[in-house]
Amino acid sequence: MIALGCDHGGYNLMREIKSLLDGKNLEYRDFGTFSEDSCDYPDYAKPVADAVASGECARGILVCGTGIGMSIAANKVRGIRAALCGDCFSAEATRLHNDANILCLGARVTGPGLALKIVEVFLSTEFEGGRHTRRVEKIAELER
Q: Which residues have a Cβ under 8 Å from the Cβ of 36 and sit 6 or more positions away?
């Protein structure tokens, strides 16, 4: 299951992401927001990050205006490796090398066509392991 969250700035892009996931029959849990009314991104980053960190959801996707605020907030939760991606190469690399478990997108800086491709790459790429496992473990050490 995929955890989804956005603020008002990411609301319209998140609607498109949900349509993509529906078309691929991928299950998700939507933590909101559910309108374009102004709201605070940490209120949506936290429940998504908690769901991923607890194992309730395998991965997460967060969207705000730039993706920066969501990535900062989500990365405060132990066990989260949230990556802001604006291109497909970064989405693939962060899964292969960093085992990123949350994708952050900026709806005001990444067009919907590219954003949907980034989502597809992020969700279809598995962690490479090997030498990268040691590095991910060092990141976990920083949290302790």
A: 8, 11, 12
- 64 catalytic residue (yes or no): yes
- Angle at the Cα of 136 from the Cα atoms of 134 and 139, rounded to 5 degrees: 115
pLDDT in tens, 18-58: 999 999 999 999 999 999 999 999 999 999 999 999 999 99
- Confidence (pTM): 0.97
Q: Among the options 6, 39, 57, 64, which is catalytic?
A: 64
Q: CA–CA separation, 38 vs 46, rounded Å?
A: 17
39 is catalytic: no
Topology at the third CATH level for domain 2-143: Ribose 5-phosphate Isomerase B; Chain: A, (3.40.1400)
- What is the structure's pLDDT at 144? 86
Per-residue pLDDT band for 71 (boundaries 50, 70, 90) equals: very high
